[in-house]
Design brief:
The structure holds 2 protein chains of 2 kinds. By secondary structure, chain A is of the alpha+beta class. Chain A is 56% helix and 17% strand. Classes of the chains: A alpha+beta, B alpha/beta.
Amino acid sequence: MSLLWLKGLLTRRAGRLLAASAGIALAVALLASLGSFLAASKATMTQRAAAGVAVDWQVQVQPGTEPATILKAAAGQASTVLALPVGFADTTGLQATVGGTTQTTGPGKVLGLPPGYLAGFPRSVRLLAGSLHGVLVAQQTAANLHVQPGDRVRLGRTGMHPFVVTVAGVVELPQADSLFQRVGQPTQSQPQAPPDNVVLLPQAIFTRAFSELAKTRPDLVSTQIHVRRDRQLPSDPSAAYTTVTQAANNLEVSVAGAALVGDNLGTALGAAREDALYAQVLFLFLGVPGAVLSATLTWAVAGAGADRRRQEQSLLRSRGCSGRRLLLLAALEATTVGVLGGVIGLAGAALIGRSAFGSAGFGTTATGAVISAGLAFLVGLGIAAATVVLPARHELAVATTYQGRSIVRRPQRPSWMRFGLDGLLLVGSLAIFWATSRSKYTLVLAPEGVPTISVSYWAFLGPALLWAGCAMLAWRIADLVLDRGKLLVAWVLRRFVGSVSTTVALSMFRQRRVIIRATVLVTLAISFAVSTATFNATYRHQAEVDAQLTNGADVTVTESPGAHVLPGAAAALAQTPGVRAVQPLQHRYAYVGADLQDLYGIDTSAITSATSLQDAYFQGGSADQLLSRLAHRPDGILVSAETVSDFQLTLGDQLKLRVLSGTSQQYVTVVFHYVGIVNEFPTAPKDSFLVANASYIAARTGDPSVGAFLVDTGGTHVGRVAAEIRSQVGTTAKVTDVNSARGLVGSSLTSVDLSGLTTIELGFAIVLAAAAGGLVAALGLTERRRSLAVAAALGASRQQLRGFTLGESGFVALAGLVCGALAGWGLSSMLVKVLTGVFDPPPAHLAVPWGYLLVVAASSAAAIFVASGLAIHRLRGHLQEDLREL
Amino acid sequence: MSENVPLLTCTGVSRTFGTGHTAVVAVHSVDCEIPARGLIAVTGASGSGKSTLLHLMAGLDRPTVGDLSWPGLQDDDADPRAQIGLVFQGASLMPALTAIENVAFPLVLRGIADVAAREVAHDTMDVLGIVELAAKLPEELSGGQLQRVAIGRALVTQPRLLLADEPTGQLDHGTALDAMEVILGSAAETGAALLVATHDPVVADMLPVRWRMSAGGLDTDPSLTVRAGASS
């Protein structure tokens, strides 16, 4: 009998089965795609984090320890690929005489590089001029000394004569921060900036220059063992971090404190694991609703056939079929639907992966792809069971044979409406949102050096409750309109469907459960699309803002420290083709108490002509308001919130700073007045800094020199303009552009990664929105084709028949789109706030992708109306068949 | 129009579903006329083509071959099909409408205002003795009540030809006879011609003229009526 039943389902109820399978296929495809994508993203994050590290470990040999011992221990560590000793020595200063003038610098660092170092650690040095074979001078040092390859430099040695070397090349040290770190010291005690003056010597020359000094002043000469590790790391950044950190700890323990490990690879992976966790959070925030929506869609599809299934059950029961047997038949249907949907979904996911990401597994490992696919398939089977077997079981428990005949019952309001569950969910959502969006709240916690990381999954509850609450509220509103407002509905319909409007309105009122279900589904789909798309657009916008913030402007020309460039140089840059505006930006260092901070001097009236200042950069007012305050008080200064807190400042307080003069290189005391708080500023570091009027700083220090020029190109031809300026300024200044910064700020949780995630999301959102409207409308109308057939047989014109379908479709489309848009807006606002950790800086407002949303709305509405049109079209060809079924 | 003009004529009417070797001839070369005030029973086993013939007569379907026309119903350029009332096989009420809304529905489709249509429907239900069912939904009605409401819906437009397809097919014997009494009484009262397709000989015997369908063919031999009358 089971096989006969299955055959009957496949031949007579193929549409219902296929529609339910399609819903499951969507859920499976979405979960499999996102799961594989997440696994692939995590692996990419690990690879990128590791690839960006020039020297994996810097093992600092402790005084009194023989470097060879540590070298042997480091080289003997499992997964060590290369270990080389690097000498570090302090120089009292450098001096060079070029073109008849002598330049002298302050103290610096000299490194001794063993043979094979540059080949073994290729990312540690980038050649700018000359050759890598011989003595190398850092770019800034070369600029300070005005030297180029072939020039001679005197290395000052404490208590000894200077050592003279000939420069072979000028290089950039891309990872100078980590190269000159204080190994083993906490972050707070790390130097503010790498040394200005650096010379790299071949090991033999280094030995000649500093071996004697090492004997007399061992505190000035030390050795580090630089280690390159095998990059065959676990694909998950967290696991990779644990592996690398444990190995570093193992090395430290094995040498019994004779060396400290500067674990650069671990640090990079530590940052990546936080990003990976954010990616996981995004997966949950953005992916799970899609899967829930697909499941709801399947439930609605199955629900659309519930009356017919009830009739079939009733008939079978009247023929003596047992309840157990009926459940078995329902399980058979669920399995068929689940397997079919699962297979289609996995095929769809593979297709998406291949077309969008070049690989069916989205670039993840075979194991990762199989696990994602397997889990998604199981979820598909679960959805099938929940949407087919459970309702059948429920019907068995409550339905009588008589009720089995019913098509339309007097609709009863769901019990949750009486208890106001929608209101409770919305209030609960807002309460949780309030609790989780307070300051100091962190969604993802990955403390440095601590292997455990955590996510506050509590925060998920806010958006989840909001989504559910909005869906229920949409149900309540639709119910209210169709019940209390049926006369209004009839009045509106009259202009479209004529005399049958009241009948249509009454029909909609009595069948409102089906209509409301479709409306809620469209609401959910649209809100999902709106929130996903808005979140994505906001993220992209903020990534752009972050890139601008990091670089300072479209193009930034940063002068070498010590260079004395006056604001007037902006005029020359402004002549470059493609440049719209140039603004000089003073950069000094100033002591706030004992704390050395960056101080930026700006022209408040013109700074925004070259860069954009977001309101989120400031506290206690908008960007315009804070700049205005600064403009009205020449000695005004904007400080960080941390400084305000540390020094208990209130607005108008006097602030005495010791500011480094560019000309005298001496600190002079300058009095400022605190006028506001600044959190972020173009080119400024993440920690504390100060912003003041450039003219005031110049007047008080007697030094108007500029640290950088911010160049606006209008966002176009950035690369070309940067190249042109680069050729103008040569090696005297560093020219960076926003395109390069974009790649830097997105090093891990990259815009590329998120765009992959949202490509899947946005694609599915359109499909779900269209399916939610179209599929449910089509199935609902199919289930009611007998009514349409009767109406046709009684003489209803095509226009009148269309009135019946258009009434329902119009209501579902309009109510669903409006409720969905409102819910989506609320959800977007909450998502952006809850996921604020992925934004840097936090957005001032939401970015709404109107074009995409119009496509979503149009596709949903079109699907609904096409389904209605097809229902009428189908009626023409199947009237006899439908009437025969009466 | 003269009462001698038949309401409906079929000449060589055939209806074939499908094509090629899967084609099914549901109605084959039917020739017949339905006179004004004619009361006819069409008998035949299930699948003999009765429903298809009624659908053709009601204008819901078109013959594949042959000519079908309604000479006695073509008044005032109006669609002759508007003068045909239909009682379908099984429950055919609009499930989302109450009994009175169902009865009024054909009038609403003809553009009559809702209130006026309800008044007429109420009168019709009153005649049929089912006014107390007015506010009930189809799911709240018994089988016999459903069929009475369906009859009311067929009569509300005061058709000149009433076509009933197995109107008692799903009713018990007593209820079936009651329903037929209602249909016959209504036809007599309005002067409408009546054609009832049924496989129930008892129901067929309630009508003076009997035609028989077999394998798509229609036998309208008057002797059939005599024989049937004799047998009853």
